[in-house]
Amino acid sequence: MKAQKQHIIAGPCSAESPEQLLASCKPLADNGQASMIRAGIWKPRTRPDSFEGMGKQALPWLKEVGLEIGLPVCTEVANPQHVEEALTENIDVLWVGARTTVNPFSVQAIADALKGVDIPVMVKNPINPDINLWVGAIERLRHAGLTELSAIHRGFSYYGQSEYRNKPMWELPIALKTWFPNVPLICDPSHICGRRDLIPRIAQRSMDLGFDGLMIEVHENPEVALSDAKQQLTPDAFHEMLNGLIIHTGDLSDPVIADQLLILRSKIDDIDEEIIRLIGARMKVAEEIGDYKRKNDLTVLQLKRWKEILETRGDLASKLNLSPDFVSKYLEQIHKESIRKQTDVMDQKGAENDEVMW
Ligand code: PEP
Ligand code: MN
Asked: Is residue 185 helix, strand or coil?
């Protein structure tokens, strides 16, 4: 039995007109699939002279659509004035966008404007992969007295090539979940992917990782959308995506499931212990080598040897079906620690010799 239904937040990137909003959102409540409607009113745009949202006039459009279809509505706020205007129109839930979470002054100003109003607030991750800014934004809102907080993972900006608009870097939302186990974590595949064909894959991945819900951009006619046209789904594609999603409903309080998992986990415990003991043994040999290098006046870093390690271990890893990227990252860490230990051995012995000489 599934403990809780997923939160499914859907709606257009931006509110463009009352008609567009209603046509985009009305079908979302079908079969009870969406639990909340989203729409941007004030749009933070990277470049000027692009569509910056319909502003304040669109707040009543959004609220009325929510009332008509019987769902709560949410929008992004980026400053105290947005907060005040959204509260005046009785918007049900607010979210803090990625470009705001990066700036502690802006987050604090929003938190101050919300003092004494316990409205649910969702906090998107900052655009850069810095978990402390994400944690800090949640803490600032919490300190202002807000109790219904959740987090939205929308991927991270990076420089370079990738099929995603914003790299998922799943380890960061997982770390946030460890930090705040009771803060619901929602995935926003639309802004991660930047193109609609990738959305089902990322949505599924977030369900596999135990996320608590999804925020998906849906537009009645994405081709003509005024913002994020490439990533919005039609209402039909939205339903199709949700119907294809596997939501895991296994329950750890089932004793059979819990027992089987315990057996497998105890195997992992044994293997981890063995790995750590072996790493310890490897470091001891590295120290002996450090001592030997010192006595023979050799440098710690021997590039030829390092290349040979990468090649031979890389070959073994591919035979064992391990990802080359993972194995080279692991080796880099081990090598870094070996070098640190050997340098310590050299410095220490050097210091002892210095003392003798003096
Ligand atoms: C949005 O949700 O439309 C938006 C602007 O998102 P983000 O802050 O993730 O870029
Ligand atoms: Mn958008």
From this structure: strand
Beta bridge mates, 74? 38, 93
Superfamily of domain 255-357: Chorismate mutase (1.20.59.10)
**198 phi, psi to nearest 5 deg:** -85, -10
Binding site membership of 124 for ligand 1 (Cβ less than 6 Å) = yes
What confidence score (pLDDT) does residue 132 get?
Answer: 98
- Whether 87 and 113 have beta carbons less than 8 Å apart is answered as no
Instruction: Express each pLDDT in 24-55 by its tens digit.
Output: 999 998 878 999 999 999 998 888 888 999 99
Fold of 5-244: TIM Barrel (3.20.20)
pTM here is 0.84
Q: Among residues 156, 209, 166, which one has the least CA distance to residue 186?
A: 209
User: What are the pLDDT digits (tens) for 145-191?
Assistant: 999 999 999 999 998 888 999 999 999 999 999 999 999 999 999 99
Domain layout of the chain by residue ranges: 5-244, 255-357
Atom of ligand 1 lying closest to residue 152 CA? 9
